[in-house]
Amino acid sequence: MKATLDLWWLLRRRSSDSRDPQGLTNVLAIIAFAATTAILLVVVGGVGAFLGRAGGIEGMRDGTGADVTSYDVQYPVFAAVAALLLLIPLVTLGGAAARLAVARRDARLASLRLAGATTGQVGTLTVLDAAAQALVGALVGLVGYAALLPLVAQLRFQGRTFEISELWVGVPALLLAVVGVVLVALFSAAVSLRRVAITPLGVAARVTPPGMKAVRLISMGLAFVAMIVATNVSFGSDAVGITILVLVLVAGFATLNVVGPFVIWVVGRITAHRAKGVPTLLAGRRIVDSPKTAWRSVGGVALATFIAGMTSIFALFDPSMGADASEAQFMGDLKTGGFLTLAIAGVLAAVSTGVMQAGRVIDQRGEYRALTLAGTDLKTLDKARLRETVIPLVASVGLATTGALMFMAPIIGLNAFANVDVMLQFLACVAGASALVLAGAAASRFVVRSAMAA
């Protein structure tokens, strides 16, 4: 064990090699973990604040048992639904950060395996690396959460702003968040490690992985069938029925991460086959070589698009049409909460795209330099990298729009999406989320310059 620890420390000290210039990989992973932790705590704090205003668990129990459910009791329910939807992009970003760190070290770990290192030693090195980065990122995220509290407290719900004490989650929750982020990192690292432990020669030789399977589409089909069943079956009580609907909706939301890489792979093959220029051909080939990475780069906007589909439904509700002041306030807060959830999802998408794009540049540094030596200018490489983002971005928005229609139609019907206000709001939300993602991709340009100069 001591030898493994010494080797890990040596590799940490020499992390800035020709494949990882200036330790940018560590910085990117820490940024992703920090964003995950800070936003997770903000979301949890928001749910806790609404729960506190409703009187806690006892207040919720009394409120749901009353003949007429008060609006105060409904706020924590909607906040919890938003938190569940945001949990998926949060876990995705945390997992992407862990895979980013491991992927950059695949070749090195594979070389150690070929040199005689055991699977256990390689596994320990990976776990230590992922845990160290996740822990540092989570601690930075705690500072970010503290900095965000005064800003979040300015949000106005139920006719008043929040007190910072309402949004404070407490020390136990802070510790749980750190532990949770580290566990997500360890799990993702362990999954990524399988390809190194099983096929070290293939990793070292950078063999192209096999294509994606269409069987992934079945998961979304099953979730859609479950939604139809859930909307047409009586479960004995409204609480149970709503709970099942929410769980099925979140499950359908999660299937985007399963179906997405296959759709991106198909689009990449079509793009490479029909390319009429060097930038498009480069982009198509890179997408085909790693569709999962391409999806992780833009998957956040797909999740944001799904949320935008739900948020746009609020365009049907005009607060001024409320029967009384309380109903008007509730309808207005629903819109505010929907847009806030969408904004958080958009920020997560932008961070995920920026981190993954920069990580891909580092990973492909050798290819960039080879293309430059062969006469390819940086303008062409920038165009290829932009199309490597835009093409999956368009595909993911189309997939998410289809998913939103599939899972929302059984609940509210297709007629709602024929409303002009709904469609305009949906398009505006998608455009905003897409702009954030493109900004995240553009932010990785400095990494290209750094990688080329190293």
How would you summarize what this structure contains?
InterPro entries: ABC3_permease_C. By secondary structure, the protein is mainly α.
Structure commentary:
It is a single chain. The chain is mostly helical and 454 residues long. The protein folds into two domains: 207 residues, no CATH class; 245 residues, no CATH class. It is built from 19 helices and two strands. Helix 2 runs antiparallel to helix 15.
Helix and strand sequence: HHHHHHEEHHHHHHHHHHHHH
Shape: globular
Major beta sheet summary: 2 strands, antiparallel
Number of strands: 2
Percent of residues in helices = over 70%
Q: What is the domain tally?
A: 2
Spatial sequence of strands, sheet with the most strands? 1-2
Q: How large is the share of residues in beta strands?
A: under 5%
The secondary-structure class comes to: mainly alpha
Average pLDDT for all residues: 76
- Show unreliable segments: 196-206
**Separation of termini?**
34 Å
Number of helices: 19
Radius of gyration: 23 Å
